[in-house]
Amino acid sequence: MRKVTYKVGTDIALIKYWGKKDEVLRLPLNSSVALNLDGLTTTTTVEFDGSYNDQVMIDGGVVKGGEKDRIVEQIQRLRLISGVDLPFKMVSENTFPRATGLSSSASGMAALTFATAGALEMDLTQKQLSILARQASGSACRCVCGGVVEWHEGETSEDSYAETIFPAEYLDIVDVVVVVGSKQKIISSTEGMKRLYDHQFMKVRLEGVNQKISELKRLIKAKDIEGIGQLVEAEALEFHSMLLTSSPPIIAWLPETVAVMHKVQELRKQGLGAYFTINTGFNLHVLTTPSDAYTVETLLSKMEQVQQVMVSGVGDGPKELTEHLF
Ligand code: DP6
Q: What is the spatial distance between Cα 190 and Cα 74, in angstroms, rounded to a whole number?
């Protein structure tokens, strides 16, 4: 059997996926839109062979417990479809801190799905890969595509998948990723979504989300970075208002996170194009223009609260590599 390696960029959701209508199939309550990133990637090698023992290594360490179970579950899903029943070895490396709110499971599960399908010699379309990746981690379904990506909510497993709505080169936007902590985030997205039961704001959010997606597409089409930034920052704060009012509440931010938010607002007052968005962790993404990127990066990295800054452009999707990790 083949040894296969894929490099997959993670993404940043501009309109967030938050809540499931089917937890097993991972069907979302709403469609979402994300930017694929070329600067934050996961590379994964998978091989099936009778001499292996379902071994999982990520970032140099052997993975066990719940994290391993989710990986084995995804491999098993593909093994069943392919009819191959051999043990595997998987080695994966991230270029960014894992489980800190920078969506390592999105690129991780997408890379796993691509490498596994390749190693099992399965001939799958991008749509089929997206549907399979979704079942491992919802946001992973978007990382099978490059550029600006929309995950269509769908009603069934077959129509809940992602596709590129604008190619990578369409939008000149830079993501300055700001790391203020590298400890594990307080709650996984999977667990966080379970706290949404009967959420008081959900009806209002779902009533407005399709309109928001249409407006975002209009702004992207017009290449209006300021409009995109304002909409995306407001969406991130709406999303966190849902976290804060969940039961029990989720306070994802650290004091350092809030300091960066204030700094971004200050940078705007100085005339720079800078807009933050954030997922369930404490690390942030600051969207900016290519001409302001260097200044934004420099000023943010000088803050005492900031540990690391990574700059990413828009990615154009998964790549198969000929160099393997083992
Ligand atoms: C806040 O895709 O990690 O990052 O489907 O349970 O694995 P599961 O959740 P996951 O949730 C991501 C949530 C988010 C927003 C987003 O990326 O759209």
A: 16
In contact, 298 and 269? CB cutoff 8 Å: no
CA dihedral sign, ordered 289, 39, 253, 305? negative
For the chain, list residues with pLDDT below 70. Answer: none
Which tokens in the block code for residue 176? 């300055």
Ligand 1 pocket (Cβ < 6 Å) reads 13, 16-18, 26, 32, 103, 105-106, 137-139, 189-190, 193, 279-280
Q: How far is the CA of 54 from the centre of ligand 1 (A)?
A: 26
Report the pLDDT value the prediction gives residue 100, as an integer from 0 to 100: 86
The C-alpha atoms of residue 179 and residue 229 are separated, in whole angstroms, by 20
The reported pTM is 0.97
Q: What is the pLDDT of residue 58?
A: 97
Q: How many whole angstroms from 67 Cα to the centroid of ligand 1? A: 15
Structure confidence at residue 183 (pLDDT): 87
d(CA 16, CA 30): 9
* Distance of CA 22 from the midpoint of ligand 1 (Å): 14
Contact indicator for 199, 304 with CB cutoff of 8 Å: no
